[in-house]
Amino acid sequence: MIEISNLIKQYGDIHAVNGISFTVEDGEVLGFLGPNGAGKSTTMNILTGFIPYTSGEIRVNGHEIMEEPEAVKKMIGYLPEIPPLYMDMTVKEYLKFAAELKKIAKKDIPGQVAMAMDMLKITDHSHRLIRNLSKGYKQRVGFAQALLGNPEVLVLDEPTVGLDPNQILEIRKIIKKLGQKHTIILSTHIMQEVSAVCDRVVIINKGRIVAIDTPDNLSRHLSGTGSLSITVSGPEKSIIACIRAVEGVRSVRVGADRGENGKVYEVVSDGELDVRKSVSLALGKAGYPVTEMKATDKTLEQIFHELTTGGNK
Length: 313
Fold this sequence. Notes:
Blueprint (H helix, E strand, L loop, with lengths): L1 E10 L2 E11 L4 E5 L6 H8 L7 E6 L2 E2 L4 H6 L1 E4 L11 H11 L7 H11 L15 H13 L5 E5 L7 H14 L4 E5 L3 H7 L2 E6 L2 E6 L1 H9 L1 E8 L3 H9 L4 E9 L5 E8 L5 H11 L3 E6 L4 H10 L4
Helix pairs in contact: 3-4, 4-5
């Protein structure tokens, strides 16, 4: 578990990080989001031991980072946004070198390097000079470096930057797989990535936390309402009355006509209530078949924009 308590980092009179607190549970994939200059990179650099903090506390599996820096660093694998690669080394040479820097036992290095290359699918490029790799493969080499030593915690800063769509999907699969055995903090500007792989989200702005929750709950709670799009067959007035009678429904609006499939009804409900099951049961009991139902809450992009700009920019 990672525990961050009242973390502050000052540069003169400027608070880059201003009293943030949150935890990351074992085996959790946490999305760490914020606009440029929000304090994300500062927080990750503090967590990984690159820079000290002004006040507060960070514990990784019970070890305080300022008191036991070496113990904490052994537990963390870090992929910075721009991986520190040595262009004149081959992939295999670089990973061996990184393993030695991490003080991995000499007898374990070949296996660790092979495992990391296999996980990132770069084994076929092991003898190529890093300078000759594409940007996407350089990113994979940096990711492989973070896996060496089998750290309990992975801190990934923009792991899919520079990758093509197919490579992005592959890296997302890898992150989800790693999340089964590792605690992961993932910083990214790609909201689809957060929705695809993260269990919870922390959004930071101007050095302060503005939201912590699951992606779904953020959409529902911060909207203040829940929205459903329901396609159902039957008499319009009766369907509207049926839906409105469900507890928690605020309004019903008739949308597009889908012909034989019925009409689309846009339903707004209280944000704290999930009315999908109740609406479905009510319509089914009344004999009106539902052919499609989907949530249409605010997207994570919209929520992020509102929280970090006030929705006015």
